[in-house]
Amino acid sequence: MSIRIHTIILILLASCYCKGNVLPTHRYDDFVYDSNIKSVKFSHPEFDFSMPILELNSDNILILSFDDLRGDYRNYKYTIELCDAWWIPVDLIQSEYISGFFEYDIVDYRFSGNTRIPYVHYSLVFPDENLKPKKSGNYIMKVWSDDSGENVIAFTKRFYVLDSQLAITGTTTAGTQIDTKWYQQEVDFQIDRLQMNIVNPYENLKVIVLQNGNWRNGLFQLKPKIVRGNILDYDLEMVNAFDGGNEFRNFDIKSMKYKTAEIDGIQLIDGQYHLFLTPDVKRNFLQYSYRGDINGRYYIKSDEYVDSDVDAEYVYVYITLLSNATRTDGDIYLYGELTNRQLTDEYKMKYNYDRKAYELTLLLKQGFYDYEYVFLPQGQVIPNAAEIEGRHFETENEYSIWVYYRPPGELYDQLVGVQFLSTRN
Known about the structure:
Strand content: 35-45%
CATH topology of the largest domain: Immunoglobulin-like
Number of strands: 30
Radius of gyration: 22 Å
CATH architecture of the largest domain: Sandwich
C-alpha cells in the first residue's frame, strides 16, 4: 500500500470513525460539536504554541481552556481514551490506561468581565491525581456537559503521552529531484534504537512525519532505507518530501482601538464588534516573499486588558478572497488551527457573485491568527493549498517525527520518540 493511499484511508478513519451509515458520537481528532464552545486550547503553560505532549510518569502538565458563549455556568466533565498510531481506539478497558477516576469534573471557571458578548471561561490543569494516563501513546480528551442529562460531547482534543526510549536526529533540505527542488522540502532522519530491543523495525515500528503538526497531509508507515546496527536510516529522497507551501497569512485583532495592516475597518453594530479584513488575493502566481508567521497557530490576547482569558472580546471577523469566478470542481476552505483544520460547512468559503469574491464570517476571540486557503476537489479528503497559496522550497516550516512501537502481541502503540525540526535551523 502506498503512503499516499494510506494517508487517505487514515483521514477517513480518523475523521469519520463510524459503523455503516450511523453518525459517530464523536470524532477521534480535534473537533467542536457545540457551536457555543469557542477558543479551545490545549498546550503547555509556558508555551502556547506547543503540541500537547506529556512525558510519561513525569510532573509536567498541560492546560486545557475553552469558553462557553451561553454565559451561564454549566457542569463540564472530561475523560480520556487511548488510541493507536492511526487514532483508532484501542481494545483496552479504561483501568488499563487510566489511573484514578475514569471521568472527572472541570471545576475551574470564571465569568467574563464587562465584555459585549458574555461567556464563561473554563480551564483544567491536566493531569492530576484524580485522572491521569498510565501508558504512552495517542489520546483523545472528551469533554461534555451533563446539565441536560444527555451527556452530549461538547468537543474532543488530541494529546500525546511520550515514553522516550530512542534518539532521533534529522535535517531538512530543498527537494533533491531536479523537477521538484523549487517547491518541495525533504526531511531526512535517523533513529538510534539505543537500548530498545526492536526485533523487526520494519513491522513493529510506525514512523510518521508531520508538517506544522498537520495530520491531514502527513507521511505514514515510513520504512527505513537501511539498518546499520542500532541506526535506522530514513534518507528516502522523494518519499520523505512535502510541498513547501507558503508562509501563512495572518491578522492581528488584539485591539479594537486601531487598525493593523490586515484590517480594512472596525465597526460597532448593535453593540457588538465587526471587523473587516483587507481582501486577500491568490498567491499561486507570486514569487516567494518571507513574512513571519506562527505556522498556522493562533493565540489569545487583548491589548486593552491584562487578563485576556476573561476580558478579551469576541469579534465578528469578515474574511474575503477575491476571485473572478467560482470553482465548480470543488470547494475553498479557510484552514489552520483556528478552524481545527476541519473541512466542514462552517469553514467553507461562500462565493459572492456581486463582489466577485469568496467570503466567510467567523466569531473569534481577540488575538493573533494564522490562516491559509485550501482547495478541496470533489470526492477528495486531502486539501490542496498550492492552488491558492503557491508552493516554495524557501518556506519556513516545522516538521515533527513521531515513532510508535508495538511489541508482538500487544494491543496498543507506545509513543517512544518525537523530534521537531525547522527549515530555518
